[in-house]
Amino acid sequence: MELSSVILTTGGSVGFFRLVNAGVSKLPMPESAARNAWKWRNISTSFVHSLITAIWAVLCFFRHPQMAEDLIETHTVFSHALVSFSIGYFIYDFFDMVLNQKLNQSWELLFHHIVVITCFGLSVLSCRYVGFAVVALLVEINSVFLHLRQILRMANIATGTLYRVNSMINLGTYVVFRINTLAWMTRWLVLNRDKVPLLAYTLGSVGMAIMTAMNIVLFYRLLRSDFLKSSTRETKKEKEKEM
């Protein structure tokens, strides 16, 4: 893809997600979510991005499996467009948070977005490491269930079979597509150190370290919220019945 195509795809993505956000605001909203309408729209928009990107990333490797053998040079217009499209989403979401949320509530995600935009930007502009970027986007498979979890909680459906099933799938995909993917990417970066220029290697290493730390913290929070606390509540209920 030429620079003009990258700019067009990225800009079109920003516009697309603005329209998605506007469209969500026209749809019925649960009363429990009305207290924070912006967050409901933001998470719903993020859910749409995750759903599109997860399917798109899998299709990239399905349509062009050779890309998995060479994550540096080999890529297609289809995969290059995916990375450009995702940059557009992260730019959109960055400014959506800056304009609508307090800095002390969003600094972690803002920092995450800056790292992603920088790394993906280097990839699409240099036309290298596109395959590596697509591997990174496989984490969006988990993000589908992660965002669905937030939507269910905001809609006051944080109990019952649907939430429980989603929680288990969310935790499972978190380990497979988020933690394992980041571990594999870190390993690949170390093994291919000689093939990667110093700037790209440094940027990738710092990015991987930050993402790994953030994801370990988030994994603990999910485990504590959806499984450890619920187990504690069930134990208390059983003790109360015995009394």
UniProtKB/TrEMBL annotation:
Domain named TLC: residues: 35-231
Keywords, comma-separated and alphabetical: Membrane, Transmembrane, Transmembrane helix
GO process annotations (BP): membrane assembly; phospholipid homeostasis; plasma membrane organization; regulation of membrane lipid distribution
Annotated localization: Membrane
Lipid bilayer topology: Multi-pass membrane protein
GO terms for cellular component: plasma membrane
Domain of life of the native organism: Eukaryota
Membrane-crossing segments per the record: 46-62, 74-92, 112-139, 199-223
InterPro entries found in the cross-reference section: TLC-dom (IPR006634), TLCD (IPR050846)
Protein name (database record): TLC domain containing 2
Species whose genome carries this gene: Lates calcarifer
Organism ancestry: Eukaryota, Metazoa, Chordata, Craniata, Vertebrata
